[in-house]
Amino acid sequence: MEEIIQLKVSLLNSNPSIWREVQVNRDTTFFELHHIIQITMGWLNYHLYEFNLEGYRISEVSEDFRFAGFGSNEVINSRDIKLKDVITAQGDKINYEYDFGDGWQHQIIVESFVKCDRGEYPVCIGGEMRCPPEDCGGIFSFYEYLAILNNKKHPEHNDMVRWFPKKYDPAIFDIEKANKQLQKLDKYIAKWLK
User: Fold this and answer.
1) Local confidence band at 72 (pLDDT 50, 70, 90 cut-offs)
2) Geometric angle at alpha carbon 38, from 65 and 181, rounded to 5°
3) The pTM is what?
4) Is 191 exposed, middle or buried (CB count within 10 Å of its CB: 0-12, 13-18, 19+)?
5) What is d(CA 147, CA 41) in angstroms, rounded to the nearest whole number?
6) What 3-state class would DSSP assign to 68?
7) 18-36 pLDDT, tens per residue?
8) DSSP H/E element including 45
9) Which residues pair with 2 in a beta bridge?
């Protein structure tokens, strides 16, 4: 039997809350966790990211990252550190920011440690609401855009309908789709390593 970590990932300032519950192996790297969050939340992995845990900054350290003005000596490479290296107790919290422009802030809470031999990890076990579309300007702009979409008399309504993804419903989270993608996590990650 192996020990699995159950995490709850919540998009801060979302109302109603946009969240996911995932179970991952203790040996999961933060690089892998980033991709797990991308898949389960519905992000498209277009932007940089950073985890912050008790002052430690964890991100992907590459030439592009250094060129952007971030010193590699200040950041722990997300490929080199595993969850078991820093997560010690139920209730531990990790901050995760995706897309420094839009500033999608997430809080990750360690809900529990589970003994399991199922072997199908990572897995998403719960969640609500669809994440906002990429590049919509952040959480507050997202809610402004939703208000425009819901007001057919708004002068920007037609533009917003064209810009938002087709058939976008903020209330729908497809957990089956997320889990199918998680089953192909290695292939998903390999695509981004090219």
Assistant:
1) very low
2) 130
3) 0.91
4) exposed
5) 22
6) coil
7) 999 999 999 999 999 999 9
8) none
9) 116
